[in-house]
């Protein structure tokens, strides 16, 4: 069975994650309830004719995938697999608004064709002329992990040698206003929104696109090997530790072998206890990292975490801004990522040098 | 007629998201498709919707589109002659 290596990464997020080394320009914004991407110069990557119809999620996905390919020194791949929670929600909103505003008449095609969840994967395939396997997973907060799992199996089974895998989500004004009404996004006026010391329910929302070139061989450009990925849709809080131990044991590892753990803490007092009980007990002696204070919460925010963990293994450094505790290790060779959203859709991803 | 041409240029720029193009960049006789503005078949559908929604003109024969959407000049002339609103 072939191994799966991360050989190139590209990330567009609320932080300057392009044209930088590793979060040296990161800013922890505690005053906004919705974080927007720090946009690159799209025209450097996409032709003016194509760009005018693209919503930001598509543009971010294309740029992040181009950065990942460049990083891996590849021009094309055998397959493209994406994960997204809400897809191209901006164009979906536009299209639905048009239907209502115009009484189901005068419907234009542009926002409709760009509104499907697989638009990003399709546009990347078009720009690369990649006619291989192209699939998009829409599985809530495990959309990205589903994509990674598929890619890993394709590589292990020799179905593909190189795969572009990404997680993309974008903010839509109407959708975020509904999330705010429903309490999924924190209420205005409750600043500072401190992820590590939350005082309210809901989260600070965000958006972004992170892409990875996965290959079946180790190269000069390799960041890490993906050892394992596991998805559990439902788990009780008191089952998490056992589940993680079983997951690690399946990979011949113990908790003490983990050099750093990345938690999906998002500042929601109702559900962050899933992480804090692990942080205070099983992983008390392990360096703990967090990221949603930088990326914001969205269904594929865990792709930002994978980008971050890959960078930690490559640079062997942990920027202060992502540290939960002050525990350090001489080397960061094995990293565990644990994410969940609202107590559901749990995922464990294991990386090694 | 001049006001209508100006209005059409504005609508085309906004509806088709022609970000880098200003009204003064579009000459009345510039071809809208191909070498001129470089519009494509999806844009043609958007133009058909503009005719219907804003000027009450329904194009029944798609072949007509080729001559109507040749330039701003031809579009404005067709709209002036056929508009119902």
TrEMBL record, chain A:
A Gene Ontology BP annotation from the UniProt entry: fatty acid biosynthetic process
PANTHER family hit by this protein: 3-OXOACYL-[ACYL-CARRIER-PROTEIN] SYNTHASE, MITOCHONDRIAL, POLYKETIDE SYNTHASE-RELATED
Native species: Flavobacterium pectinovorum
InterPro entries: Beta-ketoacyl_synthase, Ketoacyl_synth_N, Thiolase-like
All residue ranges annotated as the Beta-ketoacyl synthase-like N-terminal domain in the record: 46-218
Molecular function per GO: 3-oxoacyl-[acyl-carrier-protein] synthase activity
Name of the protein in its database record: 3-oxoacyl-ACP synthase
Keywords: Transferase
Automatic annotation (TrEMBL), chain B:
Domain Carrier span(s) in chain numbering: 1-83
InterPro entries attached to this UniProt entry: ACP-like_sf, PP-bd_ACP
SUPFAM superfamilies in the cross-refs: ACP-like (SSF47336)
Domain of life of the organism encoding this protein: Bacteria
Listed Pfam families: PP-binding (PF00550)
Protein name, entry field: Acyl carrier protein
Organism expressing this protein natively: Flavobacterium pectinovorum
